[in-house]
Amino acid sequence: MLTIAFDGLDEVNAALSAYPQAIAAALAGKAEILSTALVDKIRNEKLSGDPLQSRSGALAASIAAEVAADPDQIVATIASSGVKYAAIQEYGGQTSPHEILPTKGDVLAFVVNGAQHFARRIEHPGSTIPERSYMRSSLDEMNDEIVAELSDAVTESWGTS
After folding, report:
1. CA-CA distance, 161 to 157, in Å (whole number)?
2. Which pTM was predicted?
């Protein structure tokens, strides 16, 4: 009869079971860094000239990142909140005809072809807004960097656990 005994089996099992937690922690940390970098790219490159010019800065200020991690997944979300026109700028679309009324006085004042005009109300015919992707294009541009950084995080955590 043959008997085989392994010394240190408990230590090996403990080390192997630590790998998933170490990799998840490394990926969550890297996701935080990368999502912050993506928000910075959107704000500082895409919303300050190309494809969109900044007027008030409200759209750029509305962009935020959130990373949620649990044992099964890590999700990084980059989104705009509180700015009604964020989606139509990203995807394009049409606005419906609508009435424009003054909010701070009795009349609207505007300039057309260098001449000042006044009106109590204006019937706007609606607009076609072209797609001006600032979020998806930023993600596309950072795709290779994101994949490489996440891959490196897994490789590094595998080697240190």
Report:
1. 6
2. 0.76
Condensed to tens digits (0 to 9), the pLDDT of residues 124-146 reads 999 999 999 999 999 999 999 99
Please tell me the distance from the alpha carbon of residue 96 to that of residue 125, in angstroms, as a whole number: 7
* Residues 61-102: tens digit of each pLDDT: 999 999 998 878 899 999 999 999 999 999 999 999 999 999
Output the pLDDT for position 150.
Answer: 93
Q: Which residue type, as a one-letter code, is found at position 125?
A: P
- Distance separating alpha carbons of residues 78 and 139, to the nearest angstrom: 10
Which of 122, 121, 42 has its CA nearest to residue 83? 42
For residues 84 and 141, give the distance between their C-alpha atoms in angstroms, rounded to a whole number. 25
Return d(Cα 8, Cα 78) in angstroms, integer.
45
Phi-psi region of 73 (alpha: psi -120 to 50; beta: other; left: phi over 0): beta
Domain limits, the chain: 13-92+130-160, 95-128
The confidence band for 114, taking pLDDT boundaries of 50, 70 and 90, is very high
Long-range contacts of 100-103 (CB under 8 A, 24+ apart): 100/124
